Amino acid sequence: MPFTFGDDELNLDDSVSTMCSVTKGDLPLKLFWSFQSKESENLVNLTTGDGIVITRTGQRSISLNIDLIKRHMVGTYQCVASNKAGTVVHSAQLSINVLPVITPFSFGEDEFNLDESVTTTCSVSKGDLPLKIWWTFKPSDENEFAYNLTTGDGVMITKPSPKMSLLVFESIKPRHRGTYSCFVSNIAGIVFHSANLSINVAPVITPFIFGEEEFNLDDSTSAMCSITKGDLPMKIWWTFKPDNENEFPYNLTTGDGIVITRNSAKMSVLGIESVKSRHRGTYECVASNRAATVSHTAFLSINVLPQIAPFTFSEDEFNLDDSVTAVCSITKGDLPIKIWWTFKPDNENEFAYNLTTGDGIMITKPSSKMSVLAIESVKPRHRGTFWCYAVNKANITVSHSAFLYINVLPSINPFIFGEDEFNLDDSVSATCTVTKGDLPLKIWWTFKGDHENDFPYNLTTNDGIIITKIGQKSISINIDALKPRQRGTYECYASNKAGHSVHSAYLSINVLPSINPFSFGEDEFNLDDTVSAVCTITKGDQPLKIWWTFKSDEDQEFPYNLTTGDGVIITRPSSKNSMITIEALKPRHRGTYSCFASNPATKLAGIVVNQTAFLSINVLPSINPFVFGEEEFNLDDSVTAVCSITKGDLPLKIWWTFKSDDPNEFAYNLTTGDGILITRPSSKISMIAIEALKPRHRGTFSCFCENRAGLTNHSTYLSINVLPQIAPFSFGDEVLNLDDSVTAVCSVTKGDLPLKIWWTFKGDHENDFSYNLTTNDGIIITKIGQKSMSINIDALKPRQRGTYQCFASNAAGITNYTSYLSINVLPVITPFSFGEDEFNLDDAASATCTVTKGDLPLKIWWTFKSNDTNEFPYNLTTGDGVLITRPNAKNSFLSIESVKSRHRGTYSCFASNAAGSANYSSYLSINVLPQIMPFSFGDEELNLDDTVSATCTVTKGDLPLKIWWSFKSDYEEFPQNLTTNDGIVITRPSQKMSVLGIESVKGRMRGKYECHASNVAGSVSQSSFLSINVPPVITPFSFGEDEFNLDDAVSAVCTITKGDQPLKIWWTFKPNNENEFPYNLTTGDGIVITRTSSKMSMLAIESVKSRHRGTYQCVASNKANITMFSAFLSINGSKLRQKIKNFHFKNFAIYPQIFLLFLHLFIIQVLPVINPFSFGDEEFNLDDTVSATCTVTKGDLPLKLWWTFKSDYENEPSYNLTTNDGIVITRPSSKISMIAIEALKPRHRGTYQCVSSNSAGTAMQSSYLSINVPPRWILEPTDKAFAQGSNAKVECKADDHR
Fold first, then answer.
1. Which of 750, 679, 690, 685 is nearest to 721 (CA)?
2. Which positions fall inside the Ig-like domain (predicted)?
3. What was the pLDDT predicted at 1157?
4. Number of other CB atoms surrounding residue 687 within 10 Å
5. How far apart are CA 1000 and CA 1007, in angstroms?
6. Which phi and psi angles does 253 have, rounded to 5°?
7. What's the CA gap between 255 and 1086, in Å, rounded?
8. How far apart are CA 531 and CA 584, in angstroms?
9. What is the DSSP letter of 258?
10. Of the candidates 913, 738, 918, which has an alpha carbon nearest to the alpha carbon of residue 831?
11. Please, which of 520, 596, 1156, 1269 could form a disulfide with 610 given CB 3.0 to 4.6 Å?
12. Are 529 and 619 in contact (CB under 8 A)?
């Protein structure tokens, strides 16, 4: 059977279906559809899919259904039927209305200047006629909406042909800047194309000030430079002109207490946390773009404190009686200014005081801003700090000070150890205090022993003496247990730049004599040998008495005192020495020689001291053994040795030799020199003394004695602690390269064995610590003998760059030598990234390029390669939202405060130095949210049946995009998604555009239309309110079907269920007389009119009269229209009642039977009669207004009236109503009660009953209120996780929402 798709052309997204039926033909039949598009010659068999549903409805029929027609579905559809007998085919053409296609247009790539002329053409290349073409304009201001354009305001629109529209600007103005859209519609739909007209607009700066009052110092202030108009990019900067005629304005940057912040592209804030005098002046904000440069200035007024020009007395110190001058000059500060001087002496115990002319000081004030202080002749009392103070109306005192330096020698407070002598092991102390004298001071103690040959030397804490520095001007000496060696003169020295002072005190100690043991030697002397012995008192107070006794070898002899004689010579070379000499030994001289010593201490103790030696006489010379001591000496110690010839014939030759520690050096004879003093007190004694030991003195000292009998000698080793000495070494003068080899040898040229030698290394980084090296990590350390150690590196690595130290230690101490190993190291960049996740627009992103290795100086820079394959990478600098900072030599920080689409791409960090270059790259991935161009339905409200459309255009955002519309009406609580239906057509002309069109606007279409767009970055929306003028709708009302009697009560309620506010409601009345005209009613003449709400008016007549009979009309009007509704009030004129009214009660006295009959007929209790009421025949919508009036037309007074309510739920009982929960109940008269609901809710649906009762009984009347309640969708909770942008399936169900 032939089929078609209909006679009319279809539109995109329409639905269509057709049935192919085989009326004749043998079974079985094979049925299928095929399709040939307009663009192809191929015939394709169709199956269900791609929006096409094919259904086999029976053995002889097959249907084809398309829910949403798309452009690729246009063509020829064939139904093919075949059986064993053959094949037949029937075709039908599917045609659709072709949407217009606009040839893209633009205003050009360059911006226009003001007053230039510009033209653009909107040309429709495709699309069915007739075409409607119009223009809209969206200003560049975000707060303004797009609107339709007509010729005017400098814009001319012409239509030279049905498919072309011309937009012409004779002289463009700033208000013309924005987006111009050309819309074209036909029966197929609506399309548009937009172009942005870019105009160079000069910046406009919002005026700013710092305030009307002056600021005080340290106040905080700020100014905001806000650009209200002007094209981007915008350059904003500040300049400053100090409040000084001789200074010029200069550009400001953050610094010197000023912080400049660029809050946005059009805003710069200047803040001063703590205002200073130098900040006073004119601040200018300058804004510049391609159109022009503008500026605005504001003066910052500051109460300026006095500012004192710095002054000094001189860099050099003054001498006594010099003259000096200081000038205190106020360079800045408001007059009047008070200036005065104060002086603080250089003494901690004295306070500062104000100065006036006097005491050698003269103060003069040559001007209001200057004060001069002069001292003709400087005295010590003038030494101290001179302060100049100044104060003005700012009420803050400023000052400047200078110290007057006078050269003052140190003055030491005299000290003593006491008047009495101390005993051994007593404790003693003394403090040396410098009472006067310039700092810095050097204070030290010296000591000179009690012996004539003792030299003074500096003291340190040692040998039972404790020296303590007390502050800068005192030093103490303390001896806990006195020893004889500590007796002597103690001197305290104090020195400064002026010179030095000294004070001494003698420490007197009662010391018993102590005789140094002596002997004539172990060997026997020969006759005629010369022998001597020295009795040396090493300790003991003067005066000393020394004498000798002799006891011969004969047993019978007693000891006796010796005097010079008999070949014996006794000499007293010093007060503490007595020497006995025998020039030519004789046998009688053999025996025991005793030396006795006494002093006052021995007398107090009642004892004497002595030492004895036996003189054995033989022939050969003999040297008395000597040593320098058992312990090693330190450098600068003093040492003495005596070579005494105890036996031997004269003449004697005595000399000394020295053999150093160096095996390559030979022994040599010594003479006085090189710090060595050799003396010959007698023919048989030679003394060697070294005042200050040096390393070269270490070795073997030998005393040789020769006479005619032969040669003898005696040696002793002088041991001195010698520090190691390391020979300098280096790794070379030039910088080495990686993988080079290097060697260094650490050799100790001097120093006592055993020696410990080792190497340490400290890397090149600040955080590296020094550590000991061993053979490891490419480093070989080799010990070469006892005094050398080498380090060898075969292949240098960057980690081996740094400081190498060789340490050598022995018993004397530790020394070291350092050498730096410099290596050319390539830069190494630490890998960086922007993160694994994509960024969203306006997120902040940053990356740090850190060069962990590599020689300085380093050059670090960034490049950027955008996502566009046609663009090349380029070097980056701070700008365009990218900030590059260099916090230190090895770091570069790249940050983007607000990520934009243009920032997406590859960022590379490059680092180079003398060794080479390196780079590292990271990709910045950005999710670009859709951006919807604002749209509107126009500024004015639409009327019913008008045509309207809106285009949702996504100007930015990653594909794929999902675009859909939602709608929230004025009566619904939640929005609902829209599809093409119910007079609304939604088309998708491109991937980034959706058009919503309404051919004929209805009241139900009023509400908020929202366009949604989503992609992987997220979802955005843009909405516009469709405002429709809705005329009032009056709920029908009546006075009832029955006629009223005179004096009955009657009422009517005029309720507006729909219609825009504000509403005007009034009543008119047309009497039931053809000759009378209708007139407006007001309260009066027995009629009460009450406006119970904005959508409700009630008319009530308490007692109906004949004149009230007629037509009552309720009239309601708003901006949309005027509507009215009428009801006729019919009144019975009762003759019986009139007769009763005219009846005279005086007749009751004559006719009692008639009176009883009257009572029976007329004085009867009457039940209430309620006039039927209803809420109307149609269902109401949520938030509609509704009312009902319960009028008791008959019934005895008093009457009781009330309302009850029974909801739609079976299990809920009915209950009495009161004014509450959105319900208002009013009682305008004794026989009328009105119920009104301003905004209907689901809970108000149910049966409303009016109940009236009096003494006769109860009556009631009810009506059902029906409300359209949309279903409530219930979404069951789920614990499934869904990925953003993916498809999800959830279960939901509809519930009756009440």
1. 750
2. 1-95, 100-198, 203-301, 306-399, 410-508, 513-616, 621-719, 724-822, 827-925, 930-1027, 1032-1130, 1168-1266
3. 45
4. 17
5. 15
6. -135, 170
7. 87
8. 8
9. E
10. 918
11. 596
12. yes
**Which residues have C-beta within 8 Å of that of residue 244, sequence separation ≥ 6?**
281
Distance (Å, rounded) from C-alpha 396 to C-alpha 305?
A: 7
CA 271 to centroid of chain Cα atoms: 18
pLDDT of residue 1021: 92
- For residue 1229, give the nearest of 1206, 1258, 1252 by alpha carbon: 1252
d(CA 1001, CA 508): 128
Q: How far is CA 748 from CA 754, 789, 791, 810, 902, in A?
A: 12, 9, 15, 11, 68
Pairing type for strands 779-784 and 736-737 reads unpaired
Residue-wise DSSP of 1148-1212: GGT-HHHHHHHHHHHS-----EEPP--S-SSPEETT--EEEEEEEEE-PSS-EEEEEEEES-TTP
| Token duo for residue 146 | 């797009």
Each residue of 593-624: b (16+ CB within 10 Å) or e? bbbbbbbebbeeeeeebbbbbebbbbbbbbbb
Structure tokens at 234: 């915008």
Q: Pinpoint the alpha helices (H) of 810-924.
A: none
d(CA 1168, CA 1258): 7
Q: Extract the tokens encoding 821.
A: 């190993």
C-alpha to C-alpha distance for 433 and 412, rounded to whole angstroms? 6
- Structure tokens that stand for 713 in this block: 């000698």
**How far is the C-alpha of 1014 from the C-alpha of 961, rounded, in Å?**
6
What is the pTM (predicted TM-score) of this model? 0.31
> Could you give phi then psi for residue 1155, rounded to 5 degrees?
-65, -40
Rounded Cα gap, residues 136 and 167, in angstroms: 11
Burial of 129 (0-12, 13-18, 19+ CB in 10 A): exposed
Q: How far apart are CA 515 and CA 520, in angstroms?
A: 15
Residue 168 CA from chain centroid, whole number:
52
Helix locations, 767-848, DSSP H: none
C-alpha triplet 522, 527, 533: angle, nearest 5°: 45
Q: Three-state DSSP class for 731?
A: coil
d(CA 239, CA 261): 14
Q: Smallest Cα–Cα separation from 743: which of 819, 847, 837?
A: 819
Specify the amino acid at residue 465.
I
Residue 886 neighbours by CB distance under 10 Å? 13
Q: Which of 665, 675, 810, 824 is nearest to 736 (CA)?
A: 824
* Predicted local confidence at residue 1201, as pLDDT: 92
Asked if the bond preceding 831 is cis, omega within 30° of 0, the reply is no
CA count, 13 A, side-chain hemisphere, 1043: 12
Q: Give the CA angle between residues 712, 716, 717 to the nearest 5°.
A: 145
Cα–Cα distance between 1229 and 1209 in angstroms, integer? 33
Asked if 493 contacts 443 with a C-beta cutoff of 8 angstroms, the reply is yes
Predicted confidence at residue 1294, as pLDDT, reads 55
Q: Kindly write down the DSSP assignment for every residue of 782-800, as one continuous string.
A: EEETTTEEEEEESS--GGG
Encoding tokens for residue 645? 């010839």
Q: Cα–Cα distance between 300 and 284 in angstroms, integer?
A: 11
Pair 652, 581: CB distance under 8 Å: no
CA–CA dist 1036, 1177 (Å, integer):
9
